Amino acid sequence: MLIFYALLLFMIIAALIAVETKNLLGAVICVGAIGFGGALMFLFLRAPDIAITQIVVEVLSLIILIRATIARHVTPVSGDREFVGAVVSVAIVLTLFVAGVKVLDALPPFGDPIFVRTPGAASQTYLEQGLRQTGAANIVSSVILDYRAYDTLGEATVLFTSILGAAAILRGKSRKLVKESDA
Amino acid sequence: MLYAMCFALFMLGLYCAVVKKNMVKIVLGIVIMEYAVNLFLILLGFRTDAVAPIVDRQFLETGADGMTVTGAFLRQAVDPLPQALVLTSIVISLGTLALMISVCIRIYGKYGTFDITEIRRLKG
Amino acid sequence: MKGMTVIVKTVAGWAKMLVFLFGVYIILFGHLTPGGGFAGGVILAASYVLLLLAFGRRFVEEDLPLALDSKLDCLGALAFALIAVWPLIWGGGFFVNFLLKHLPESALNLVSAGTIPLSNIAIGLKVGASLFLVIFLLSVFSDDHGTKTRATGRIADPKE
Fold first, then answer.
1. What span, in angstroms and rounded, lies between the C-alpha atoms of C103 and A132?
2. Does B72 touch chain A if contact means CB atoms closer than 8 Å?
3. Residue B98: exposed, middle, or buried by beta-carbon count in 10 A (0-12, 13-18, 19+)?
4. Per-residue three-class SS string for C76-130
5. Where exactly are the structural domains of chain A?
6. Are A72 and B108 in contact (CB under 8 A)?
7. What distance in Å separates the CA atoms of residue A47 and residue A38, rounded to the nearest whole number?
8. Phi and psi at residue B105, in whole multiples of 5°?
9. Beta-ladder partners of B69
10. pLDDT digits 0-9 by tens, A77-110
11. Pick from C100, C139, C140: which is nearest to A135 by CB?
12. A–B interface: beta-carbon pairs under 8 A
């Protein structure tokens, strides 16, 4: 139990540094620290699938973020700011904070998940019948590819669309560059 | 208490995304919020003294048809449903991160800065 | 991007096969052990990103051309959709595990899970190809932008 508090404290400290530091590369590396702390946390929370995925995704996203920031000089952000914008953003943060604190009272105690106390919960059925109905020993795999495969199809569509958008944005610029260098 | 710390992480990400003026900082705030939400969903499904939701040979009922899991597995396994949802969400977050970063790079190429107030001033 | 020193190149040349094989293992055994199509696909992409970082862009472009990469991406998505609609032809529902009743009844086998390993392979192909595609495009773009600003010096000066 203590390891969870230690890891979450580490993640919060890294997030504080990432939010407040002036150095963009340092902020990116602190976000990487949060991600690897989260991967360790998933491992201790008995979710090895997510731990593996989180580690490899973290490596690739660090590469993407570092490539975006490393060659560009950090622009010093000017101090002036509109009064209305500042008030509105502080109001948004405070409203969500109050709403979240209200919700914290209604949560179940840690270590006692909801599906245990709910008769006929879906998760209980997956655990009991997953091996017999799908043949997969990894219940998470049987959920994402058999019971809820429709969800995974939508996920694949979202991934396809976002990669298509990134390719369209980047490729338009490259084509213009090629044309300009020809002229 | 763990939920409250997770919520604090989420609020840090939200503060970073709403208040900061550097575009890469906004992207980092969104990434921190994603971590916090994923972690919260996994925390909701945890049991004390739990095992991962993967059937091993020791959790198979002996003598039955070889497809029946034991009661110990049902009493100990963590919730598999949030894990399945978070697994897809992590990979989606990588795709959206690539999209956001390409938008940032494109804006940097056009305006030469990551500062959003600067960009707004240059628009007119 | 020209690539790194000979030490990095040698080690990357040995490590790339191991990383690639580990990704294939994670995909194929995704229904028995932790892992699956998502994690394995990202590992496959990471093996080619390792090549990209160590050897430079030209080497990877010869090894895996962009056109082939897009085709692999579309092939993965198409295979997953095909697995979804195939049972409709034989009177089942969308995404029914149609192979399960034709397989031998035994748990914890490599072929015991019906369509789940096939879906894992399709998802792994799709995720790996698309993630490598976007990282490759990002690297190409950064290079072009850098040379452009250094050559003209005008685009980084938006004050006028």
1. 13
2. no
3. buried
4. HHHHHHHHHHHHHHCCCCCCCCCCHHHCCCCCCCCCCCCCHHHHHHHHHHHHHHH
5. 1-73, 139-183
6. yes
7. 11
8. -65, -40
9. B60
10. 655 667 787 888 888 889 988 998 888 888 888 8
11. C100
12. 250
Q: Which residue of C has its CA nearest to A43?
A: C34
Q: How many CB atoms lie within 10 A of CB C11?
A: 13
Structure tokens at A160: 């396809």
Given a cut of 70, whether residue A175 has pLDDT beyond it is: no
CATH number at residue B102: 1.10.287.3510
A39: which residues sit within 8 A by CB, 6+ positions away?
A51, A54, A55, A58
Q: What are the pLDDT digits (tens) for C51-68?
A: 988 888 888 888 888 888
Instruction: Write out the residue range of the structural domain in which residue C33 sits.
Output: 6-152
Segment 58-77 of chain C within 8 Å of chain A by CB = 73, 77
Task: Please state, as a whole number, how many other Cβ atoms lie within 10 Å of the Cβ of residue A23.
Answer: 12
**Domain span holding position B82:** 2-123
Q: Which residue has the tokens 């096969």?
A: C17
